[in-house]
Amino acid sequence: MFAVIRTGSKQYRVQEGDVLDVELFETEEGRDATFNEVLLVADGDRVKVGQPTVSGAAVSAEVLGEVKGEKVVAFKFKRRQGYHRTVGHRQRFLRVKVKQISLS
């Protein structure tokens, strides 16, 4: 059984037991998070596609903690001007472990 959920303007394909990094939102480590925007649920040959979401479907996950993503380096320069600048950024994510996909 798998589902496609939407959180933080991104879509993720999840199964029970998956660990994934989603965009940061307010919650505490060790708590449960529920994703109600389920776009698709598939269980074997049975597939339910939402219009836009599947009514009564939810994905519950355990919050494992906050992590940082890969460093992204932006290097700016203007030729023949002696101008160059290096700027780095690391996005913060929330790591969650999918516990259950429910469909009522």
- Supply the number of structural domains: 1
Broad structural category: mainly beta
This entry's quaternary arrangement is: single chain
What's the total number of strands? 8
N/C terminus separation: 14 Å
Q: H/E order of the elements?
A: EEEEEEEE
For the largest beta sheet, what order do the strands appear in spatially? 2-1-5-6
Estimate the mean pLDDT confidence.
Answer: 94
Uncertain parts: none
Helix content: under 10%
Largest sheet geometry = 4 strands, antiparallel
Which percent range describes the beta-strand content?
over 45%
Number of helices: 0
What Rg do the Cα atoms give? Answer: 19 Å
Q: What is the overall silhouette?
A: elongated
How is the topology of this model organized?
Blueprint: E1 2-7, E2 10-15, E3 19-23, E4 32-35, E5 38-43, E6 46-49, E7 57-78, E8 83-103
Antiparallel strand pairs: 1-2, 1-5, 3-8, 4-7, 5-6, 7-8
What can you tell me about this protein's structure?
This protein is an all-beta fold. The chain has one domain. It contains no helices and 8 strands. The chain has strands spanning 2-7, 10-15, 19-23, 32-35, 38-43, 46-49, 57-78, 83-103.
Summarize this, please?
The protein has 104 residues and is an all-beta fold.
List keywords for this structure.
mainly beta; elongated; 4-stranded antiparallel beta sheet; 104 residues; 8 strands; 0% helix
